[in-house]
């Protein structure tokens, strides 16, 4: 647990750097399907696209509510300065994606075993992926969906705690390799909870 706690702060610092160095916009939905809706909920002003109008109501409010609650707290304590309102949604996403990163690391260790050589190859590829760096802290429902699916995947591949002994072909040293089975019911239920939340936010998740 201490290993993951320490790594979490390292990963969070990395995602915060991604956040503050991505001072651009990517697609309109980054704002008009998330932050703008949350701002309208709290302050009663701002532009709502047609999907959010009462006569249509095609979108789930779950995603904008993630930002609406901090906005409401900032408004309550008169701390809703412009630069805070600007950055708090991205900081929230940096925090969420840092959790997803830790889940990815744990999932990777579960799938490939505890081979440090493999992790040293996999993790640099993951953390230097330019598109993930570019989009990980953006307020897109796709980004939140990615976070939830990484967390769900971590619970789906939980170990069963059994180990078998094998021998290396080169130096005959014994090592323990994790033996996997169908995930336990409790882990699988947690996995389904995160998948369901992702499905509520973006119904196309169910196509996966």
List the helices and strands and how they pair.
Blueprint: H1 2-20, H2 29-43, H3 62-76, H4 82-112, H5 116-127, H6 130-135, H7 141-156, E1 163-167, E2 174-178, H8 185-201
Antiparallel strand pairs: 1-2
Helix pairs in contact: 1-4, 2-3, 3-4, 4-5, 4-7, 7-8
Which key phrases capture this entry?
8 helices; endoplasmic reticulum; GPI_mannosylTrfase; 2 strands; two-stranded antiparallel ribbon; mainly alpha; globular; Mannosyltransferase; 208 residues; 5% strand
Can you give me a brief rundown of this structure?
The protein is mainly alpha-helical. The chain is 63% helix and 5% strand.
Overview of the structural elements:
It is a single chain. The protein has 208 residues and is mainly alpha-helical. The protein has 8 helices and 2 strands. Strands 1-2 form a two-stranded antiparallel sheet. A hairpin with a 6-residue loop joins strand 1 (163-167) and strand 2. Helix 3 (62-76) crosses helix 4 and helix 7 (141-156) runs antiparallel to helix 8 (185-201). The longest helix has 31 residues, at 82-112.
Q: Shape from CA axes?
A: globular
Q: Helix-strand pattern, N to C?
A: HHHHHHHEEH
What Rg is obtained from the alpha carbons, in whole angstroms?
20 Å
Largest sheet: 2 strands, antiparallel
Helix content: 55-70%
- For the biggest β-sheet, the strand order reads 1-2
Helix/strand-derived category reads mainly alpha
Strand content: under 5%
Q: How many β-strand stretches?
A: 2
Q: Helix count, per DSSP?
A: 8
- Terminal CA distance: 31 Å
Whole-number mean pLDDT: 83
Low-confidence stretches: 160-182
Subcellular location: Endoplasmic reticulum membrane
Signal peptide: 1-24
Keywords: Endoplasmic reticulum, Glycosyltransferase, Membrane, Signal, Transferase, Transmembrane, Transmembrane helix
Organism: Meloidogyne floridensis
């Amino acid at each position: 647990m201490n290993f993951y706690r320490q790594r979490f702060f390292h990963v969070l610092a990395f995602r915060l750097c991604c956040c503050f160095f991505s001072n651009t916009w990517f697609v309109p939905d980054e704002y008009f399907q998330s932050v703008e809706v949350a701002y309208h909920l709290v302050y009663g002003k701002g532009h709502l696209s047609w999907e959010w109008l009462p006569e249509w109501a095609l979108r789930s409010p779950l995603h904008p509510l993630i930002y609406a609650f901090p906005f409401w707290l900032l408004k309550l304590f008169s701390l809703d300065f412009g630069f805070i309102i600007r950055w708090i949604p991205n900081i929230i996403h940096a925090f969420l994606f840092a959790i997803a990163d830790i889940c990815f690391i744990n999932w990777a260790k579960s799938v490939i075993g505890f081979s440090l050589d493999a992790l040293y190859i996999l993790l640099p590829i993951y953390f230097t992926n330019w598109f993930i760096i570019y989009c990980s802290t953006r307020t897109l429902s796709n980004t939140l969906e990615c976070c939830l699916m990484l967390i769900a995947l971590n619970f789906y591949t939980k170990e069963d705690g059994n180990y078998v002994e094998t021998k290396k072909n080169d130096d005959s040293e014994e090592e323990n390799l994790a033996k996997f089975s169908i995930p336990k019911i409790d882990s699988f239920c947690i996995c389904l909870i995160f998948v369901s939340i992702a499905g509520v936010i973006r119904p196309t998740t169910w196509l996966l």
